[in-house]
Specification:
Blueprint (H helix, E strand, L loop, with lengths): L3 E6 L5 H10 L12 E3 L5 E6 L4 H6 L5 E5 H7 L5 E4 L5 E8 L14 E4 L2 H10 L5 E4 L15 E6 L3 H5 L2 E10 L1 E5 L5 H21 L1 E9 L3 H7 L7 E4 L5 E9 L3 H10 L3 E7 L6
Parallel strand pairs: 1-3, 1-4, 7-8, 7-9
Antiparallel strand pairs: 2-3, 4-11, 5-11, 6-9, 6-10, 12-14, 12-15, 13-14
The structure holds adenosine-5'-triphosphate, 1-O-pyrophosphono-5-O-phosphono-alpha-D-ribofuranose and magnesium ion.
C-alpha cells in the first residue's frame, strides 16, 4: 500500500510541535530513539526525521512528498516550493539588527557594512531590492555574538521574543519577513500521495480550527435573544434551547480566539449570564 512520505525536523524548534500536531490528527507514530524513519500505525504515512535546512532539497528532488518546515527556510533556499497550509506555531521573523548604541537612519545604514547571517539569500535579495550592497558573512548558529566579537557590524537572524538580541546588546531595525511552520508539498508528488496529503491536511485544518476556537454556552432572558444572536458569529447560527425556567434560553455558539474577549464583553453588556467557555478538540466544517 502506498504511503505518504513526510519530513519533519529531527530535533530542534519544530520537532515537538510537529509530532504533537500529527498526534492530534489521530496519527500514532512509533517514535524510537535515534530512529530516522518511522511508519505511522494507523495512517498510510512514513515519517523521515531530517535537518530543517536539508528538507527543501528533499522536497525538490521528490525524496519526500511533504514536510513540516519553517517558511523562512523555504524562502531562503529559493526552490519555489509551495506550501499548502500555515500551521500556527514556530512564529518568528527574520530581521536585521545592529548594536544598541548605533544610531539607525534608514536601510542605507547597511551599505558596505559586514552582516553576519545564516540566511544569506534572504538578506542579499532584500538589500538588492533596496539598492544596498553589504558584505555578508555566513554563520550557522549563535549569529548574535558576531558584532560583539568584531566579526561583523550587524546581523540578520531569527527573532521571536527578542531576548537573544537584548542579551547581546543588539536592536532590531528591519523585519525582512515573517515566518511560521508550514506544511509544504513536493512539486514531484504523485496522484495517490497527493490524495493522502489532502486527507492529512483536512485533519490538520480541523485540529487548527479547534485550537483557535472556543465553544461558548450562556443563559439569556428571551427578550434579549435577538441582540445576543446579532453579536454571536457561530458556525452557521447559534443554537437556542429553552431553560427549565420560563422566559429564559440557553445559547450555544463558537467563538474565535482573536475576537473572543471583545465578544464576551458585548454579550455581558447585552444581558448574557452564566457564560461557560469550553475548549474544542477538533472542528470539522
Ligand atoms: N526562537 C524561535 N522562535 C520561534 N521559531 C523559531 C525560533 N528559532 C527558529 N525558529 C523556527 O524554527 C525553525 C527551526 O529552527 P532550529 O533552530 O530548530 O533549526 P535550524 O538550526 O534552523 O535547522 P536544522 O534542523 O537544519 O538544524 C526555523 O527555521 C524557524 O522557522
Ligand atoms: O528572539 P528569541 O526568542 O530570543 O529567539 C531568537 C533566537 O532563537 C534562535 O536560536 P536557537 O535557540 O534556535 O539557536 P541556534 O542559533 O543554535 O539555532 C534564533 O537563531 C535566535 O538566536
Ligand atoms: Mg535555531
Amino acid at each position: 500500500m502506498k504511503k505518504l512520505r513526510i519530513a519533519i525536523q529531527k530535533s530542534g524548534r519544530l520537532h515537538e510541535e510537529s509530532i504533537q500536531l500529527l498526534k492530534e490528527c489521530g496519527i500514532s507514530i512509533d517514535n524510537g530513539k535515534d530512529q530516522l524513519k518511522a511508519t505511522a500505525k494507523n495512517f498510510p504515512m512514513e515519517v523521515y526525521y531530517l535537518r530543517n535546512g536539508d528538507i527543501p532539497k528533499y522536497l525538490l528532488d521528490g525524496v519526500v512528498d511533504c514536510a513540516i518546515i519553517g517558511e523562512n527556510v523555504l524562502i531562503e533556499k529559493e526552490y519555489d516550493i509551495p506550501f499548502i497550509q500555515k500551521l500556527g506555531f514556530s512564529k518568528c521573523r527574520v530581521s536585521l539588527a545592529i548594536p544598541k548604541g548605533e544610531s539607525y537612519t534608514d536601510i542605507n545604514f547597511f551599505n558596505t557594512k559586514r552582516i553576519a547571517t545564516s540566511y544569506p539569500n534572504t538578506v542579499r535579495n532584500y538589500l538588492k531590492s533596496k539598492n544596498v550592497t553589504a558584505d555578508l558573512h555566513l554563520i550557522n548558529g549563535s549569529v548574535e555574538i558576531a558584532p560583539n566579537i568584531g566579526l561583523s557590524d550587524a546581523i540578520c537572524d531569527i527573532v521571536s521574543s527578542g531576548s537573544t538580541l537584548f542579551k547581546n546588546n543588539l536592536k532590531e531595525v528591519v523585519t525582512i519577513l515573517k515566518s511560521e511552520a508550514v506544511l509544504a508539498k513536493s512539486p514531484d508528488i504523485d496522484a495517490i500521495s497527493s490524495d493522502i496529503l489532502e486527507k492529512l491536511n483536512f485533519r490538520i485544518q480541523s485540529v487548527l480550527m479547534g485550537r483557535t476556537s472556543k465553544y461558548v454556552l450562556l443563559n439569556a432572558p428571551n427578550e434579549k435573544l435577538n441582540e445576543i444572536i446579532s453579536i454571536l458569529p457561530g458556525m452557521r447560527s447559534p443554537t437556542i434551547l429553552p431553560l427549565a425556567e420560563e422566559g429564559w434560553s440557553s445559547v450555544h455558539s463558537v467563538l474565535q480566539q482573536d475576537t473572543f474577549w471583545e465578544i464576551i464583553d458585548q454579550l455581558k453588556m447585552a444581558g448574557a449570564e452564566g457564560i461557560l467557555v469550553c475548549p474544542i478538540e477538533k472542528m470539522v466544517v
